[in-house]
């Protein structure tokens, strides 16, 4: 009788709980049908809003990591059935709130990316396949997007992330930002100019502005933009000061114009060699830029 009582007690608990078993699995939450509808925030398995999608109507602090209990990709296409955690590449925010994607679970970590209402876009390199939670209506952040800080206006974007070469031999040890040719380029940190080459447009005319910040013991190096004629070695530069114009010094074509920004430990005059050099000379700069008040965007 004791065994029977236990069985009946468990059965009663299941009945009383009603939907307890159904809601214990986040993947079975109501309204998640693999279609990105108005009022939802959606992850996509591939970049550029391609592949299977996973739709959410609210914040999620922990996606889970194993089936059948994880939030998964439900729509048709590549990735269907996979758990969302550390597997998303792009998003569509169809809610009326800003939605923040975090590197860590439970809305944690210093790396995150905000998507305004209606925004579509790819996750930054530091979050692509590294998404662990998202939050509707997060608290405001004092950090500024690097692309905005570099140009002091909108319209700029990261064209190649750290170690971003996918077809060129070697490593990419800075971050490339692109905007209209002639756009003002501003210093992201203060320091002293220790090396300066004006260069010229074209593949053989590389320009360089190396600014050393002694208190941080870091050198920030800007390539390819056209340094202002007033710059001099030994000059002190303030954070936010205009130092160059967007150009294609050392780049083969105007349409590929960009500004390469490289963080190097210590006092360094030259940027790390990229093409044809498989040796990594610089650490991943994302955490450094975040510590200086920037979002790596």
Gross morphology:
elongated
CATH class category label of the largest domain: Mainly Beta
Side-by-side strand order of the widest sheet: 9-10-18-14-13-12-16
The secondary structure category is mainly beta
| Beta-strand content bin | 25-35%
Domain module count: 2
State the helicity in percent bands. Answer: 10-25%
Largest sheet: 7 strands, antiparallel
List the helices and strands and how they pair.
Elements: H1 2-17, H2 20-24, E1 41-46, E2 50-56, E3 90-93, E4 99-104, E5 108-115, E6 120-122, E7 133-136, E8 144-145, H3 146-151, E9 157-160, E10 175-178, E11 184-186, E12 191-197, E13 208-213, E14 218-223, E15 226-227, E16 236-237, E17 242-245, E18 259-265, H4 286-291, E19 294-295
Explained architecture:
This protein is mainly beta and 297 residues long. The N terminus is likely disordered. The chain has two domains: 111 residues, Sandwich (Gamma-B Crystallin, domain 1); 150 residues, Distorted Sandwich (Glucose Permease (Domain IIA)), CATH 2.70.70.10. It is elongated. The longest helix is centred in the N-terminal third of the chain and has 16 residues. The protein is built from four helices and 19 strands. The relative contact order is 0.12.
Task: Provide a concise account of the structure shown.
This protein has 297 residues and is mainly β. The protein has helices at residues 2-17, 20-24, 146-151, 286-291; strands at 41-46, 50-56, 90-93, 99-104, 108-115, 120-122, 133-136, 144-145, 157-160, 175-178, 184-186, 191-197, 208-213, 218-223, 226-227, 236-237, 242-245, 259-265, 294-295.
